[in-house]
Every structure is written in structure tokens, then in C-alpha cells.
Write a structure and sequence with these properties.
The protein has a single domain (4-153), classed as SPOUT methyltransferase, trefoil knot domain (Alpha/beta knot). Helices cover 34% and strands 19% of the residues. The protein has helices spanning 14-27, 44-50, 65-70, 74-77, 113-118, 138-153, and strands spanning 4-9, 30-34, 59-62, 80-83, 89-90, 100-104, 123-125. α1 (14-27) runs parallel beside α2.
Length: 156
Amino acid sequence: MTALNIVLFAPEIPGNTGSIGRSCLALGAKLHLIRPYGFDLSEKAVRRAGLDYWKHVDITEYEDWNHFIETRSTENLNRLFFLSKFADKTIYETKIEPDSFLIFGSETKGLPKFIHDQYSQNLFKLPMQSSHVRSLNLSCAATAVAYEAYRQIHLL
């Protein structure tokens, strides 16, 4: 059983996806990619960011959000954590358990409105203290959240 799952919903920048894949490999996490992508997974930029590790990353692809949800068990649906700058709670205010899914939206659009509406109780953010920062780089945010999840899971 994979203890941690990182989900990218419609990623747009190949370098971010490659870097997140490398972090997944470092943590023993599985990477889930939900189409549409803003690039082709075979692009050199993805491989460059993932370095020679990319071929070892455990990746599952999905045609769309419904395909992703259809493949989840009921138990998995209780372990969906959506990251959004519009959340009220930080990721540090929840308990992440093994086999959780950390779900990130695209770099320019974030998560779609239907996610915010349907999963409002499962929205979390990373704290940002400066009003001058609109957002964090997707790769940086995913890595920060993944390591917090890893810390929580391994303290169980």
C-alpha cells in the first residue's frame, strides 16, 4: 500500500510535474495525473526536471476527474485533501493518514470551482504571511505539503 498520493489536476508546466515526480519518488509516494495536461509527458522538460529518476516514478494517468473518482474506494474518498489558496484552514490544521491523496490544481487556474463547491470541507492551504505573494510555485507547494503529510503519517 502506498502511504501517500500526490494528485495533479490538469498540470500545465512540465518542469513542475517532473520536479513533483522526483519528490514523490523520494517519499515513496505515487503520482496521479489528471488530464488535460499543458504538455506531453514525453517532453524533454519533464524528464529534465525529473532527472534520471523519472523512469522510476510510480505514475497513474486519468482521462478526467470522473475517471479519477471512479477508481477510488469509499475509504479513499474520506482521505482527499485539496490544496487551495482560498481555503480557510492550513494543512497543519488537519490529520493526514496513510493512503491519503493530496490534490493540487493547475498552475494558472488552480482547482476548478466544482471542487471548491463539492469538497469545501476538505480544502487546505499553506500559510503565506505576505500580501505581496499571490501564490507559490506548484512544485514548491506540493513538496512542502507532501513532506508535512509524510511527517504526520510516520508519527502515527
